[in-house]
Design brief:
The structure holds two protein chains of two kinds. Chain A is an all-alpha fold. Chain A contains five helices and no strands. Chain A has a domain of 57 residues: 30s Ribosomal Protein S18. The chains are: A mainly alpha, B alpha+beta. The interface between A and B is large, with 36 and 47 residues.
Chain lengths: 98, 279
């Protein structure tokens, strides 16, 4: 028993205890604006599948801090999503959209 | 000349001829007002994201046109509002990128490019993942060594692994207390020196069969957990099966302890498989 206890104590102090939380937290991948990187100049509001990448499960726009878009294209995304909503291509409110 | 684009939704319940007629109606109106029609895109029936006027689907159309002044748009939209067949409409001015985009789309370039981009991004992601994984593995090895001071040889079978593989209970119990018998070592193809050193090595269930554990990994990782299915393949010597009483009790304790740490164990197993493969 004593041995086991010792082992357990040793284990919790080990590095792999971090797997109790998200293991990808440490190595954050650098975000980038895909529109700038790939030279996309126009965002089509009639393409809901594409716009789906920029909204969350409830149909809300994702912030720039998550998508990594530059301000210019984030604004364009926002207008495109709003237009798509008006045309019933995207929902205004949703649950379990993805 | 400015280029505009009007998208509208026609109610789907109408007879087919009437939908066509409605579209032609608006096209004629635009032409009459002196617009140059660039393209009429018939997107077709689509599911609406939310019901409009009790319709769950609609027929989408897009008309692209050029006009000198924007006055026509007011007139067009007024007729849209008066028309009961129209569920929604949206007029947008296209800037140069929009015009180019629509041209490309008609030529099929957009779809092509989209596919290419998707492939590229997937590849990039895979590369980065591989890189981070390698880095992780490199970081892991030394830390593990110092992390586990092992005074006593001791083998353990994680409780839930044993459960999933459905091993006969007595074998599972007997197993952990026993120092791994020689023939087991053979089947798992653990190099001889490891077997000798034999503190305790964890061999995860799925790895055990396929992977030959390389010597250095085994050294770095002094605990061997003999997985249940391995145990099955091996005929456990009779005396092993009849494990001494005190030993079994200890195992039971161990099992409880392990059960508490099951999630941890699973992670460790995962790591092990990685490092083994790299070996």
């Amino acid at each position: 028993m004593a041995v086991q206890r010792q082992r357990r104590a040793g284990r919790t102090s080990r590095e792999d205890i971090k797997f109790l939380s998200n293991p990808n937290i440490g190595n954050n991948r650098k975000k980038y604006c895909r529109f700038r990187k790939y030279g996309i100049k126009h965002i089509d509001y009639k393409d809901p599948d594409f716009l789906l990448q920029f909204i969350n499960e409830q149909g809300k726009l994702l912030p720039r801090r998550i998508t990594g878009n530059s301000l210019k294209y984030q604004r364009k995304i926002a207008t495109a999503v709003k237009r798509a909503r008006h045309l019933a291509m995207l929902p205004y409110v949703a649950d379990l959209l993805k | 000349m400015r280029q505009y684009e009007t998208t509208f939704i026609v109610a789907p319940a109408l007879p087919d001829g009437e939908i066509k007629k409605a579209v032609k109606n608006y096209k004629d109106l635009l032409e009459k007002e002196g617009c140059e029609i660039v393209h009429v895109d018939e997107i077709g029936v689509r599911q609406l994201a939310y019901p409009i006027k009790r319709n769950n689907s609609g027929v989408y159309f897009t008309i692209e046109y050029k006009t000198e002044t924007g006055e026509i748009i007011d007139k067009l939209e007024l007729t849209f509002r008066r028309d009961e067949r129209i569920l929604r409409f949206l007029s947008v001015r296209l800037e140069k990128y929009g015009i180019k985009y629509n041209e490309d789309k008609r030529a099929g370039i957009i779809d092509e490019r989209k596919n290419k981009l998707a492939a590229e991004r997937a590849k990039e992601r895979a590369e980065q993942d591989a890189k981070t994984k390698a880095q992780k593995a490199a970081n892991k090895k030394p830390s593990r060594k110092k992390g586990k001071p092992k005074p006593k040889p001791e083998a353990e079978a994680p409780a839930d692994v044993a459960k999933t593989v459905e091993v006969p209970a007595d074998v599972a119990k007997a197993e952990p207390t026993v120092e791994v018998p020689a023939d087991v070592a053979k089947t798992v193809e653990v190099p001889a020196d490891v077997a000798k050193a034999e503190p305790t090595v964890e061999v995860p269930a799925d790895v055990a069969k396929t992977v030959e554990v390389p010597a250095d990994v085994a050294k770095a990782e002094p605990t061997v957990e003999v997985p249940a299915d391995v145990a099955k393949t091996v005929e456990v010597p009779a005396d092993v099966a009849k494990a001494p009483e005190e030993a079994t009790i200890e195992t039971a304790d161990a099992a409880v302890d392990i059960a508490e740490e099951v999630s941890l164990d699973m992670d460790i197993l995962g790591d092990l498989t990685d490092s083994d493969n790299k070996g």
